[in-house]
Amino acid sequence: RNIAFYESKNLRQWTRTGAFTDPDRGAVFECPNMFELPVADMSKETRWVIFGAQNRFIIGKFDGKTFTKESGPQAASRGSVYAAQTFSGTPDGRRIQVGWVINRAALNRYPNQIVSQAFTLPQEFVLKETSSGLRVLLQPVKEVEQLRGEQLTSSVDGLKVCAGELTEVLIEFTDNSRHDLVINGINASFKGTSARIFNDRTFNEVFIDDGLDYTVNARSPEKVDSTETAVKSGEVKSLTVYRLKSIWKKD
Predict the structure, then answer these.
(1) Residue 4 in 3-state DSSP?
(2) Are 60 and 70 in contact (CB under 8 A)?
(3) CA distance 121 to 98
(4) Are 60 and 35 in contact (CB under 8 A)?
(5) What average pLDDT score do residues 164-175 get?
(6) In Å, how far are 68, 104, 180, 184 from 190, measured between CA atoms?
(7) For residues 79 and 108, what is the distance between their CA atoms, to the nearest angstrom?
(8) Which residue of 21, 56, 165, 188 has the smallest Cβ count within 10 Å?
(9) Which of 221, 227, 226 is nearest to 107 (CA)?
């Protein structure tokens, strides 16, 4: 449970230059990712990010041979998501990841299905200075706005329109506490002020406070047919709900 660094001039013979581990050994275990990110709103300032399969981010500096930790691990993603991988060399320089959603709720109901579990929506990494220091923010890529269909409501008491629908919910509460809610039978509770929640059939993705926290909630097998939708605690300040279009193009 450590990450090792090697260098080579011909891609055949390799020399080890260093290694990195952490007391939180799970944070560097399996499926390692490592990349450099610019610090938002800070010209020419960058940091390197390391994380493993459990999606806990470590921020530091890398001199080409060894990594020096400055902060972390930060638990920026939670729930039924594991082993996310990022794309390098994107044309516009964004660092985008897709995670694996561990979700078995429908396997017994549809025994002949040809897929198992799922991927998350693509997410962009943003490195930003906060009151708690440098933090990695996860935000859905801007392209997912193309999935927005009809706006179903903008009423603060209109969450029930999500029942039986595939939706994107933009919700803001009046305080920064834990808020309990369920959308179309799937838990969507979170701690924070606001969230952007994408609701699919068997799981949802909750981006909290502009991506400062992120969680994936899988549908419970006993609630496979539930369309329960309700805010169970907290006062809603604003709410907007969009029906989502399918990602699949029809012939």
Answers:
(1) strand
(2) yes
(3) 6
(4) no
(5) 95
(6) 33, 22, 7, 16
(7) 22
(8) 21
(9) 221
pLDDT greater than 80 at residue 251: no
Alpha-carbon distances of 64 from 5, 126, 175, 214, rounded to whole Å: 9, 22, 44, 30
Give the C-alpha distances (Å, rounded to integers) separating 79 from 103, 248, 250: 11, 26, 32
Burial environment of residue 136 by CB neighbours within 10 A (0 to 12, 13 to 18, 19 or more): buried
Provide φ and ψ at 195, rounded to 5°: -155, 155
CA distance 154 to 144: 20
- 165-168 LR contacts (CB < 8 Å, sep 24+): 165/199, 165/243, 166/199, 166/200, 166/201, 166/243, 166/244, 167/197, 167/198, 167/199, 167/241, 167/242, 167/243, 167/244, 168/144, 168/196, 168/197, 168/198, 168/199, 168/241, 168/242, 168/244
Taking residue 14's Cβ as centre, other Cβ atoms within 10 Å add up to: 11
Of the two residues 251 and 5, the one the predictor is more confident about is 5
CB 9 within 8 A of CB 67: no
Say if residue 58's pLDDT is above 80: yes
Phi, psi of 155 (to 5 degrees): -90, 140
In this prediction, residues 8-30 reach a mean pLDDT of: 91
Which phi and psi (to 5°) does residue 153 adopt?
A: -165, 160
Q: Report how far apart, in Å, the C-alpha atoms of 210 and of each of 23, 65, 214 are.
A: 29, 34, 9
> pTM of the predicted model, to two decimals?
0.90
Helix, coil or strand: residue 160 = helix
**Do 200 and 114 touch, CB atoms closer than 8 A?**
no
- What's the pLDDT at 231? 94
